[in-house]
């Protein structure tokens, strides 16, 4: 069974291999190198675009079916690459779970949510050559999670967070609590 591969990989017979196009490989490797350097997905996006670089995506369907299209790199693309275990040489099935719900106007909505790693249905390490190792993949995910500012749960009790902000100053002006 064939399925769309992430940019940077192609099928060679029935095996998944690194894309032989060195420009594509270089763009993918640059994502990981810039993340090690910048430490954030926004940092990667900014630096990539500051350097005037483009990133490939594979087109599906229509006249461009299967062709690479180069364009600006966006934040969501960086996070999807950093959080994709394929780049660590791991085959996974069950990373996302979808559900349907009825919206307020009666329309059917399909929601997709990421499944925790321990709930993945299939995980085959060393399935194919990757751009990074598993340990780096785990470290990247931890770093992205630590960078999140939209956490559902505060990391500190509200009273401690408020005290912190009262004590902070930004350009010499105290932050109101």
Structure in a nutshell:
The protein is an alpha+beta fold and 177 residues long. The chain is 33% helix and 23% strand.
Describe the protein in words.
The termini are far apart. The strands form five sheets. The chain has a two-stranded antiparallel sheet. Strands 3-4 form a two-stranded antiparallel ribbon. A two-stranded antiparallel ribbon has the order 5-8. It is globular and about 50 Å long. The protein is an alpha+beta fold and 177 residues long. It is built from five helices and ten strands; from the N terminus they run ββααββαββββααββ. The chain has helices at residues 22-38, 41-50, 75-82, 134-147, 158-167; strands at residues 9-12, 15-18, 55-58, 68-71, 91-93, 96-102, 108-114, 122-124, 169-170, 173-174.
Give the uncertain stretches in residue-range form. 160-177
Q: What is the helix tally?
A: 5
Can you tell me the overall shape?
globular
Mean pLDDT: 85
Q: Please trace the helix and strand order, writing H or E for each element.
A: EEHHEEHEEEEHHEE
The assigned structural class equals alpha+beta
Cα-to-Cα separation, first versus last residue? 57 Å
Helix content: 25-40%
Strand fraction equals: 15-25%
Q: What summary fits the major beta sheet?
A: 2 strands, antiparallel
């Amino acid at each position: 069974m064939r399925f769309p591969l992430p940019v940077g990989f192609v099928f060679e017979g029935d095996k998944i291999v690194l894309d032989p196009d060195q420009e594509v490989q270089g763009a993918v490797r640059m994502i990981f190198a810039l993340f090690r350097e910048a430490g954030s997905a926004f940092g990667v996006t900014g630096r990539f675009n500051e350097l005037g670089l483009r990133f490939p995506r594979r087109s599906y369907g229509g006249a461009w079916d299967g062709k690479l299209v180069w364009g600006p790199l966006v934040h969501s693309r960086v996070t999807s690459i950093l959080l994709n275990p394929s780049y660590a040489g791991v085959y996974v099935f069950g990373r996302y779970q979808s559900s349907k719900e009825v919206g307020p106007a009666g329309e059917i909505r399909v929601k997709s949510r990421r499944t925790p790693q321990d709930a993945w249905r299939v995980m085959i390490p060393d399935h194919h050559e990757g751009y990074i190792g598993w340990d780096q993949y785990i470290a990247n995910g931890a770093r992205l999670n630590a960078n999140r500012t939209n956490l559902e749960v505060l990391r500190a009790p509200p009273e401690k967070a408020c005290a912190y902000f009262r004590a902070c100053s930004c350009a010499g002006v105290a932050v109101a609590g």
